[in-house]
Amino acid sequence: MPFYRYSAVDAQGKHCKGAIEAPEEAAAAHQLRREGLTVITMERAGHLGKAGGTGLVVRLGWVRSADVVLFFRMFAALIHSNIPISEAIAILHDQTPARHLKAILADIRGRIEGGSPLSLAMEAHPRVFDELLTGMVRASELGGILDVILDRIADFLESRAALKRRIVTSMIYPALVAIVAVGVVIFMVTFVIPKFAILLGGGKLPANTQLLLDVSDFLNNHAVAIVIGTAGTVAALALLLVMPETRIWVDRWRVYIPVIGPVFRYGVVVQFANTLASLLQSSITLVDALKAAAETIGNLSVRKEMEAVNAKVQAGDPLSEALARDRFFPPMVLGMVKVGEHSGLMDQAWETVGRIFEKLLVDKISRMSAMIEPALIVVLAGLVGYVAWGLVAGMLAMYTAAA
């Protein structure tokens, strides 16, 4: 859709300039008149989606986080080389192989050429450039440090992605062991034991052997009901977790789960600290930074508590006192925040918090893996060993009876 740059006079007689999106010039002028503006000049400035794709491609699709990081890194280098924003966007548009990102960059370039600032152009694509990123870009535009903030955004996105990968990777091996354990048990109960049941039937069997045969018969006779019941239970739990009240309750208590609870807790602390530090370093006010950082927290319970903390800060309370009432953050965080308040270096205090707790998080993840992986292996070996013991005991009992 075309983009028109205009100058106009409002109802109070003040001159204003801007850009508007409309199918044609007459429609753009009509829309401005409805807003109480008297159009002085209007010219076509660009076209959304040019050189890159359709509006459907812009709305739908998915951009990898690695492509977004690379975009910000290269964008910072181009701006640092004194290349105009619109030309830098055009260069990155031509270089990126990602089709969806290419369409988005074409759209952003059209909006910039139409008179919109970079932050406003990025806000049109919240799935790729969330409120946190656009807020940092907006602050850099006001401070004239766009190249510095773009580099800082790339660093922040890389650290956030690395944290997510570290947590996800730590869960992969235990999950695979658990899946293998369930698969082995199902295979033995549904295929192996029934074949032995034919050989072992008709005589008095040991209790463990009889238990295996009874469990196998139950699972085979009620397989459909078990599958439906399991699917229904999973669906019900998924629906409950979608409800905010349930999510808040689960998020509140999962940080207290032994072994894995500290990983959830420290993960939230690291993400919040790094986000808040990046925002404060971008010259964003503490209140706005707290609000934006809280919205990035996946734990709904902590997010709700941080909204209350932000309200206390707006009322005039020091951040350290507001966090002390929250009780989620460890005492070390409160101490660092107090130091930041007294020294006036709050951004550096939160950056230090993120660095310290990231190391603690790595240690917690290592400990969790060291405890969970052997436990799962022992459970898997125990299940397979019990099945084998039951079958051998049954065969020995049958041999003894025959002798």
Describe this structure in words.
With 403 residues, this protein is mainly alpha-helical. It is elongated, with a radius of gyration of 30 Å. The protein is 75% helix and 6% strand. It has 17 helices and three strands. The chain has a three-stranded antiparallel β-sheet with strand order 2-1-3. Strand 1 and strand 2 (15-21) form a beta hairpin.
Attribute tags:
three-stranded antiparallel beta sheet; mainly alpha; 403 residues
Give a brief outline of the structure.
It is built from 17 helices and three strands.
Helices and strands, in order, run as EEHEHHHHHHHHHHHHHHHH
* Cα shape: elongated
SS summary, helix count: 17
> Describe the biggest sheet?
3 strands, antiparallel
- Content of β-strand: 5-15%
- CA-to-CA gap between the ends? 91 Å
Unreliable spans are 46-58
Strand order of the largest sheet: 2-1-3
Radius of gyration: 30 Å
Question: Helix proportion of residues, in percent?
Answer: over 70%
What number is the mean pLDDT? Answer: 81
| Number of E strands | 3
